[in-house]
Please model this.
Amino acid sequence: MQALPLLLSWVLDFVPVWLSPTLLFVGGVTLVYGLLQLHETYHGCHPLRRLVMGTGFALVYLPFHRRFSFVSVLLLALTAKYLEGVAAVRFYQKLLYAAKNRGTKGNGLHSFVRTRVTFKLLGVLVTVVAVWAAIYYLLAHDATTVGYDLAVGWTVATAGGSIVGLTYKLQGTVGKVPRSLVVGFAVTITGAELHNLGTLRADLLLFGLSGIAYAGGYLVAVGLWYRYGSDLQALSNAISVA
Amino acid sequence: MVVVEANVRGGIFVIVPYCVPDMGLVGFLASETVGLPNGFWLIVGGLAHGATHIEGERYEGFEDELAATAEQLNSNPFTSKQSSAAFGSIVDLVAYVLLVVVYVAVFSPREIFAELGEFAGVDLLSVVQYSTVSQLGPAQHVVYFPVYAVSLVVLGRLAFLFVVPIVSAVVNSVIFGLVAKVAANAPLVVVVPVGTTLYALHRGERHLRFVLAGRPSRYELHTTRVKAWLGADASLSDIGDYVAERSTAWTRRLRYLSHVETVVLLVGIAGLSVRLRHDPGLATPVVALARAVAGETSLALERIPLPTVVGVLLVFHGRSFVDTTSLGTRLQDRLFITGIGLVSVGMAAVVNPSRYFDWLPTVWTVFDYLIAVYVLIVAANLTVHLLDHATEVR
Model:
């Protein structure tokens, strides 16, 4: 099943081509803005200062991305996969927590399932709307633009699914880290995912390494949880936004 | 104010520690515009600028006072201290960008640089490339200085190693001194304490006298008034309330002087441009030096795309906003950036792998490293927060 998006991404190029760098830029500004809020020097400073630095970093990143496209995509995509591995362990934590608090109103298994189902439904909605839009374009436009319209639909579905999925996976960190960091990270990753690598070989390599990154994130998370246990909460509090 | 005079290749080189803040380029352009005879003036305000900033922030209670002042003002963004600082910084930034654009538009310096290097028998273009990387690394306060030193190597086969009390500047100067000595084969590297180094030494002596006598001398009180106007003596802030008041006033004046200097900078650029337009063949040593500086900028721009240049300027500018930061934090920041700069300089100047392996990408700026570092920092941060399982399920 996972091979289908890989195959599609190779057959269909994401369009328009400016969407990827645009998302990278916007995501980069937002990401650095949020990251600087974590820094004690910049936490209480004027927002303009964080914005200036965020814009600066994002501007620097664009040529970097253009020169080392594969490295850039690899770095961001593998980081996302790594965090997905970490989030998988968090899923187990949630189940454990929910099972322990079955009788507690609001925080139990029911609440957990409801939250999860809500986001799953949101993901389904984005996908359905994208498919619907693709079909609409198919019927409403002349045949010469069908391929392009399909590509647009595919791009929208991929982008929407990626942003919603990543935001959902990382939403547990909001409050500990600024929301702008989470959103910026999701948008940046999406920008990287929309970059057309161009060759099946590169796509396959990325696919293979993604599995390793996912496993790495999972193992690191399990190791940290096993090693530090509840001390992770203290560490989390120590490095979170004051 | 004249501290050092050295007779090099028949010309008199005068080095002046000019402690009004911001770039030494200001004085350089100003001296060229008025056409000083018999030599050239090198004004090292940029170095003093960084040091005096640190000194200013040392004053205990200054941050609180600044915050109180800002609080007294209303939240009008045009009157609050932070916004004023932001506006001032943006004005400076525009001046920097104009500086780069005007230099590149006025000169075609790469050939001049190559000729100068051929004349001196060194691969000057490579040296300049090394210093380009180093300049984009450690700190904005030393941006132009290695270029002056390169020019001195070319014009006089003599490298000056300037020492100032800023960690990153000292590190940068040492690195550049080594590069100048080894790569440019400079016969002599002279160590010259400039800027607030002299005042730092002087402060130590005065501080000792204050401890022994229990009060500042009349001479000190007098010189404080004078030097405060020159923006040179924030270091007195730690020896009494009277001086502390002066220090605060000095810090405020520092900001105004920065803006005045920005205007001078722009006027200097305009003056130089007009003069060169009327006399394209102008070939004084100072113009050669200016062309060398322009070559530096041109090379940098040739290798580095415009978004990167603007991005780096924005990041530096965001870092250098007048804000409430502690000395320790600033030093940590500078050490961090310096460390990354060292990696760049090491790769470019010592190892320079792209010289031997064409397929290796050439590092444009140290921010290429920062990108990877920042992504990894985010990943590590989110890992810990994601596993914070003791909180409620979200």
